Write a sequence for this structure.
């Protein structure tokens, strides 16, 4: 039977919280008005996640399981899951650590029935996250909104519901550098926030160390904006203007006042170091765009599915 709704859950080394997750999903499915399939994506876990998924999906047909050939990363695991969704009405994306309460599907579905295509979760509180993560996250959304052509609603993550038409559009977007919450904001349709309290991680630990977070945040800016490149142009124009004025000032002093302007050695050194820095940063910014072109032109698949369990059968 074709389900009305799907729930996509990326899993990377989530053995510790697996049963708690399945229990919550089972309770949700048994009480829900629409039929639901769960799409678990194993993102190359090296713990027992994979075998737990096998055991579950071979006996319970409501679970579709996808096994990627290696660890592709959170955003690609979600992408793989979305590509295999069979639901006729819509899909919800949640994390596998129960930080996003699956029960919010009820509110999402109500929105859907009222004509809202995309509902996204907005976090009211982030209890387990330290001061540092809260501050960086707050400023990330501010900076992102300033720099970018589309603004991602503050404190929204990938936790959301999308109608089938919205999902079809997202599935057709081939970009390699994936930032799903931004792509979701970009596609438009009728969107609405739904507030929720972000729970503490049910078990295990975060798979997003600082370095990964930084790379992820850069995608949020560079994938949706040409502002950084424009910024270089303006910086160059500004520096050139200053130097022309300075040249005029020097010539004026030499020919009219008969003085030779000398700013001294340290002044010169300062200017050289400053502008070397500016040039390297500018090169780096251009490099960010070149990198994205480089990876995109290879046209490699975004993820590789090694095997899949559908309707209790391994395919
Ligand atoms: N995840 C994944 N691949 C990765 C890293 C994470 O599929 O390479 C999954 C992870 O299992 C979890 C979700 O993505 O279900 C969110 O990760 P996590 O909870 O570690 O991120 P945080 O909530 O700390 O930002
Ligand atoms: Mg988490």
């Amino acid at each position: 039977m074709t389900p009305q709704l799907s729930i996509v859950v990326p899993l990377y080394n989530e053995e510790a919280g697996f049963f708690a997750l399945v229990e919550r999903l089972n309770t949700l499915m048994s009480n829900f008005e629409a039929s639901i399939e769960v799409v678990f994506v194993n993102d190359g876990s090296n713990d027992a996640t994979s075998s737990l998924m096998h055991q579950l999906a071979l006996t319970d047909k409501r679970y579709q399981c996808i096994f990627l050939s290696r660890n592709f990363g959170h955003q690609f695991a979600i992408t793989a899951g979305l590509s295999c969704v069979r639901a006729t009405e819509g899909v919800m994306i949640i994390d596998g650590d129960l930080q996003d309460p699956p029960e919010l599907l009820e509110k999402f579905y109500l929105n859907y029935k009222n004509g809202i295509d995309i509902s996204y979760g907005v976090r009211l509180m982030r209890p387990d996250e330290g001061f540092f993560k809260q501050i960086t996250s707050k400023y990330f959304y501010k900076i992102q909104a300033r720099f970018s052509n589309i603004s991602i609603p503050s404190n929204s993550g990938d936790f959301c519901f999308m109608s089938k038409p919205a999902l079809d559009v997202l599935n057709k977007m081939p970009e390699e550098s994936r930032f799903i919450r931004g792509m979701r904001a970009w596609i438009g349709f009728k969107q609405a926030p739904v507030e929720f309290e972000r729970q503490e991680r049910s078990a295990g630990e975060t798979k997003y160390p600082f370095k990964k977070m930084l790379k992820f945040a850069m995608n949020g800016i560079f994938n949706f904006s040409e502002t950084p490149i424009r910024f270089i142009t303006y910086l160059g124009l500004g520096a050139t203007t200053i130097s022309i004025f300075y040249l005029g000032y020097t010539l004026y002093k030499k020919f009219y006042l008969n003085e030779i302007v000398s700013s001294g050695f340290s002044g010169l050194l300062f200017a050289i170091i400053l502008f070397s820095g500016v040039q390297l940063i500018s090169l780096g910014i251009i490099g960010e765009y070149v990198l994205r072109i480089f990876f995109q032109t290879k046209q490699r698949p975004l993820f590789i599915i090694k095997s899949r369990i559908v309707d209790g059968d391994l395919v």
Notes: The chain has ten helices and nine strands.
